[in-house]
Amino acid sequence: MDSKVQNPGLDELVSRRYQHGFVTDIESDTVAPGHSEDVIRFISRKKEEPEFLLEWRLKAYRHWLTMREPEWARLHYPPIDYQDISYYSAPKKTPGLKSLDEVDPKLLATYEKLGVPLHERARLAGVAVDAVFDSVSVTTTFRDKLAAAGVIFCSFSEAAREHPELVRQYLGTVVPYRDNYFAALNSAMFTDGSFVYIPKGVRCPMELSTYFRINQAKTGQFERTLIIAEEGSHVSYLEGCTAPQRDENQLHAAVVELVALKDATIKYSTVQNWYPGDENGVGGIYNFVTKRGDCRGANSKISWTQVEAGSAITWKYPSCILRGENSVGEFYSVAVTNNLQQADTGTKMIHIGRNTRSTIVSKGIAAGRSQSSYRGLVKVLPTAEGARNFTQCDSLLMGSHSAAHTFPYMEIRHPGAIVEHEATTSKIGDDQLFYCRQRGLSQEDAVNLIVNGFCKQVFRELPMEFAVEAQNLLNVSLEGAVG
Amino acid sequence: MQATPLLTIKDLRVTVAGREILTGMNLVVNAGEVHAIMGPNGSGKSTLAHVLAGREGYTITAGSAIFRDQDLLAMAPEERARAGLFLGFQYPVEVPGVSNVYLLRAALNARRKARGEAEIDTAQFLRLVREKAKLMQLNESFLNRGVNEGFSGGEKKRNEIFQMAVLEPVLGILDETDSGLDIDALKVVANGVNSQRGPDRAFVLVTHYQRLLDYIQPDFVHVLAGGRIIRTGDKSLALELEAQGYDQTVAAARNQSQIAR
Questions:
Q1: Which residue, A70, A430, A483, B52, shows the most beta carbons closer than 10 Å to its own?
Q2: What is the rounded CA–CA span in Å between residue A86 and residue B172?
Q3: In chain A, where are the structural domains located?
Q4: How far apart are CA A344 and CA A218, in angstroms?
Q5: Which helix (H) or strand (E) holds A397?
Q6: Sequence-separated (6 or more) residues with CB below 8 Å from residue A299
Q7: Of B259, B255, B258, the residue nearest B226 (C-alpha)
């Protein structure tokens, strides 16, 4: 039968564009491209940072210069010219804002377009938002309510100025600057990010959320996030990311460090929708991110949930160091790639303490000519008596030109450890599609239904108000993926 | 009373991978009728069901199928479904992680939307599915399980009829719904179909055995062989087939109509 009859409007669907690809026309303070100690000094001065931080940056920079970019990931991209990137860009009018009213209206309009709940909507949703635009944090909502609970939620720059002792105590203790190439670069160049501190015994009264956006051309975004959950505290944190559509690739090298002390729980969710490049693989964000949580205290828990839909390249392994006895690490991931996107993502679960447990659920969806890899390490040290891990890795292929790969590494050094690994690879079947369409669903709805069913285990880990957003995002990312 | 044709198939010829499977099929199904299409394996029964529902992989070389005054063969599968055509699958497909009710609700709303109606409200929907589930003797936990996920063969078939009961199509085509059912399940399925019979609706039962017809009384029985209907009769034809087997019946019919193949 005529395929046009079968797939009404498919051409139209395929040609639908990235919805966050607009550029906001705002005057920016942007330093000339290139890295040097002077640039670092400039950034540190702009941020009015304490001396120890500048020194730490410089040490990281000097170390980075001795390092080589890693090549082990299953990713292909032309060499990045690190001298061609501008390491600092800030909208001109922002510094020293006291309230939302002082924020450039164009900026607020941008967030409006992105659907960031900044104003009243945020309060209704019970979400506190820290929005990072290129290199600076624009505003943090609900600080008063949080302050009443003793919670500190602010931009990283502000934390460095106002809570230097906390920053000094924890910065780099989970991801040292020597950790890897991109973490070292970030440690030297990071411009802003979020800082969260939950005091002892406090359950954070609302979901915390950060929205990242790269706006300026030729800038990198190197944000740094540090979350500290004191004994017996609890926090749920969500980050969302978008970028305008540009023909050149832009670098995003973030570092996220989580510290969970005794009996503390941190839930960290990501909905990543950086610009993925066009259907020919031109442009898009290079997303090289180091995320790691340290379950430092007994009975602590760190749970990562990620929905990775954007970026030309994703290189990211949110990990848990299970140091405390009975501590728990979780990783729930949906990674979607379409067109020429590449994702090499997974997690590391390092079992050090006794009776530590970890769960990994990874769902990879590859469409178009994209490549999706799961790479995960489960490491059980001799000290980790009673350690348990369960890993489930499922891949869903769409069309016949995409590929999924699984690289599970296991290093088990305790004879009593129980480690399970399950993996499946399947293809969205013509049978499934036809079945759903025969019931009356359009091709597009049928694909969405099948994909969402496949991801259900992960979506249900997302905070309620973001689960719907994630579903919609997935639907947009896969538009026209089956033909 | 004048009969209203729902489906009119004329000289339908269909090839699969260059081989002609339907070789000039003619059939008229009027509102209120139940037709049984019987035939030996490989006679084209399932091909007919699939082509009518719009499955890809079949090439239509000649003929037409008009469904409620519309050119059925020019419509996408979902358009056919929304126009009131339902296919009960011989091998119902699993859709893991998608609950039965979720799919049904999406299907129901797609139909309503196509008719310019508002989406069904939740309470009304739940009442409807509970009532129909009871009819099919499916318990409520079944509603929230993944579509056909881990269902037994019998459960899958009951689920098909349950879906049909909720969606209320004008024309239900049931492709070997009776295969693999034990006698109790067969009765439940038949009961489900019988309860849906009415003056405005019609059914086409594609089956290999006459057993199903003990419980669902057809108005017409057709014998499909070599890709076309070679004989049409009433219920007694099914019994004759059962007694004599397909070979003899087909041979006799061919001699009569001098079909040389």
A1: B52
A2: 65
A3: 3-478
A4: 24
A5: strand A388-397
A6: A262, A263, A324, A325, A326, A327
A7: B259
Q: How far apart are CA B247 and CA B261, in angstroms?
A: 14
Query: Whose CA is closest to B95, among A455, A17, A76, A66?
Result: A455
Distance from CA of B141 to the nearest CA of A (A): 18
Q: What is d(CA B163, CA B177) in angstroms, rounded to the nearest whole number?
A: 13
CA distance A95 to A85: 23
DSSP B215-255: TS--SEEEEEETTEEEEEE-HHHHHHHHHH-HHHHHHHHHH
- Cα A344 to Cα A421: distance, rounded to the nearest angstrom: 19
Q: Report the half-sphere exposure of A149 (CA within 13 A, side-chain side).
A: 21
From the list A400, A395, A474, A475, the residue with the least C-alpha distance to A430 is A400
Quick one: closest CA in A to B61, which residue? A1
Q: What is the pLDDT along chain B (261 residues), one digit of tens a residue?
A: 567 899 999 999 999 999 999 999 999 999 999 999 999 888 899 999 999 999 999 999 999 999 999 999 999 999 999 999 999 999 999 998 898 999 999 999 999 999 899 999 888 999 999 999 998 888 888 888 889 988 888 889 999 999 999 999 999 999 999 888 888 889 988 998 999 999 999 999 999 888 899 999 999 999 999 999 999 999 999 888 888 888 887 888 777 765 444
Q: Is A438 on the interface with B (CB under 8 A)?
A: yes
CA angle B78, B79, B82 (to 5 degrees): 85
Q: Which residues of B touch A452 (CB under 8 A)?
A: 97-98
| Residues in contact with A9: Cβ distance below 8 Å, sequence separation at least 6, in sequence order | none
Query: How many separate domains does chain B show?
Result: 1
Pick the closest to residue B96 from B151, B38, B24 (CA basis). Answer: B151
CATH number at residue B243: 3.40.50.300
> Can you give the residue range of the structural domain that contains B173?
5-260
Exposed (0-12), middle (13-18) or buried (19+): which is A81, by Cβ within 10 Å? exposed
Phi and psi dihedrals of A193, rounded to 5?
A: 155, -165
β-strand A152-155 against A234-242: which pairing, if any? Answer: unpaired
Distance from CA of A241 to the nearest CA of B (A): 27
> Looking at this protein, which amino acid is placed at residue A108?
L
Rounded Cα distance between A297 and B47, Å, is: 64
Upper half-sphere CA count for residue A405 (Cβ side, 13 Å) = 13
Instruction: State whether residue A226 is helix, strand or coil.
Output: strand
Query: Of the candidates B74, B77, B106, which has its C-beta nearest A449's C-beta?
Result: B106
How far from the centroid of its chain's Cα atoms is residue A339's Cα?
21
* Phi–psi pair at A223, nearest 5 degrees: -95, 160
What chain A residue is nearest to B164 in terms of C-alpha separation? A439
The tokens of B209 are what?
Answer: 């055995």
Q: Put residue B28 in one of left, alpha, beta given phi > 0 → left and psi -120 to 50 → alpha.
A: beta
